Amino acid sequence: MAVSIGQPLESTIETNGTAYSFDEDPPDMPGLKKSNERFRLPHITDLFPDIVPKYSTFSTKSSCLIRGNVQGPLRAKELGKMFVDDRDRVLLKVIRYAHASSSGAECLNDDCTFEHWWLSRAGPRSHIYFEPTEVNAAIVTCGGLCPGLNDVIRQIALTLTTYGVTDVKGIAYGYKGFIDEKIRDIDLTPQSVATIHLMGGSILGSSRGNSKTSEIVDNIEKRGTNMLFVIGGNGSHAGAMAIHQECFKRKLKVAVVGVPKTIDNDILLMDKTFGFDTAVEEAQRAIKAAYIEAASAYHGVGVVKLMGRQSGFIAMYASLASGQVDCCLIPEVHFSLDGPNGVYEHMKTVINRKGHCLVVIAEGAGQDLVAGEGGTDASGNPILADIGQWFVKQAKKHFKEVGFPAEFKYIDPTYMIRATPANASDGILCSVLGQNAVHAAFGGYTGVTVGLVNTHYCLLPIPEVIREARNVDPDSRMWHRCLTSTGQPDFSPPHVESN
Ligand SMILES: Nc1ncnc2c1ncn2[C@@H]1O[C@H](COP(=O)(O)OP(=O)(O)OP(=O)(O)O)[C@@H](O)[C@H]1O
Ligand SMILES: O=P(O)(O)OC[C@H]1O[C@](O)(CO)[C@@H](O)[C@@H]1O
Ligand SMILES: [Mg+2]
């Protein structure tokens, strides 16, 4: 039997995306059944089916906490549209490609049959699975820094307070803070977090490596933590998932919720992650400086290195935003330096035409050309060779050898960019993600993360967003737009047919 959406709040409590009981998809929601399987969100009731949730203590209509059962069915009409229904869904994809050859098309067949994938909507639920006074919450930031970390920490702490939680701890220096007894927790109160978003970095500190799941969960158990918020990238999310699974294995009632942090924007399925916009904006200062230096020198060449270990989103968007960039090199697109279609030839053409040239290079670009440093960091991420310095050295050598005068100015603003506070648009993204992480935990969800998908905030199962790193698709409209802006040719080395 198909169940229609939009039942009033008084209806029976529905949770966990399984609320639709049907033999076939509702007529207006093709693909719902398979979406509910693929994007099923783990829920506390999977482990404790007998938990009876209570009416939410969260309200935007009351300036004081709503306690006990005051907010019963009688108040449902009054509270009106304040809550998100567990059955609300957001479409993952919205373009219906006519053919697989359409730019950016990802299709299962030549006709590009449209697939409906429905995601769960994030937001406050009418019923909660934790008694706020019994919540012992912990927040941890792991991996590299990113603009907006403090905004997320702040908003999680403030939203928890809104529900009536009084025990919120910051775990210092990433997962290490759970394991190393010498590392002290940081008390997070509305007062202590009030202005932290005005600063870059993370007031909790961060780290890589050192994350033995069983030891972390031992510590979670010892402290009695029952809500854990992990702000981090794909590695941190893999860690969060492992913690969630270990908690389930030990039958611990702990909600583990992630907030994706990646300046590189390399998390799957999401429109963008926080810190990315700020990075693109902050990169403009370096690009502009490099442009001015290059344009003020005879045959000046400005080179700017930007972050992007495996994904060139920052370099691509920053180049597009600048409009001054003549050559953008990213990890996803191989390039050759020499030859008629190589980077050097393009640079010479641009210099001959304009008198100067501007190159943006992502840190992960051209790693096949430069001899790598080899090895991995504490978390197992590859340690990259410095492509920026290498490129400038090689290019200088080349131009000297061919007798083409050129003056190079190199800027590496990577850590300056990473340490800046979030801009306004990231500030909003961080705040909404932080709030939604808390709503997810109170709604009983665990092993989930929050993200912006097609401009709507969604809850996603962690494994779906960290299956692999999200990359720039060289066939995408955005990369083609970047190429249209830089005017660079296809630098790919010529394809050699093998016998
Ligand atoms: N597969 C995994 N399982 C459990 N923990 C992991 C896993 N991968 C990484 N971690 C842990 O997650 C933390 C952060 O990982 P990592 O340093 O890779 O940063 P990240 O979250 O991916 O962010 P960034 O985008 O800055 O790399 C580390 O403490 C690391 O040990
Ligand atoms: O210097 P760290 O902390 O190893 O981080 C560098 C890496 O972190 C990132 O900023 C991702 O967080 C990558 O762009 C970069 O390769
Ligand atoms: Mg990572």
TrEMBL record:
Q: Which cofactor does it need?
A: Mg(2+)
> Could you say which residues bind substrate here?
T262, I263, D264, M307, G308, R309, E363, Y415, M416, I417, R418
**Key words of the record:** Allosteric enzyme, ATP-binding, Cytoplasm, Glycolysis, Kinase, Magnesium, Metal-binding, Nucleotide-binding, Transferase
**Binding-site residues, Mg(2+):** N234
Entry annotation: catalytic residues:
D264
Principal location class? cytoplasm
Cellular component (GO) terms are: cytoplasm
> Where do the Phosphofructokinase domain residues begin and end?
137-440
The metabolic or biological pathway listed in the UniProt record of this protein is: Carbohydrate degradation; glycolysis; D-glyceraldehyde 3-phosphate and glycerone phosphate from D-glucose: step 3/4
Identify the residue position(s) of the site Important for substrate specificity: G235
Q: What is its EC number?
A: 2.7.1.11
At which positions is ATP bound? G144, R208, G209, G233, N234, G235, S236
**Activity regulation text:** Allosterically activated by AMP.
Q: Does the keyword RNA-binding apply?
A: no
User: GO molecular-function annotation terms?
Assistant: 6-phosphofructokinase activity; ATP binding; metal ion binding
Q: What does this protein do?
A: Catalyzes the phosphorylation of D-fructose 6-phosphate to fructose 1,6-bisphosphate by ATP, the first committing step of glycolysis.
Can you name this protein?
Answer: ATP-dependent 6-phosphofructokinase
Give the source species. Answer: Klebsormidium nitens
The gene coding this protein: PFK
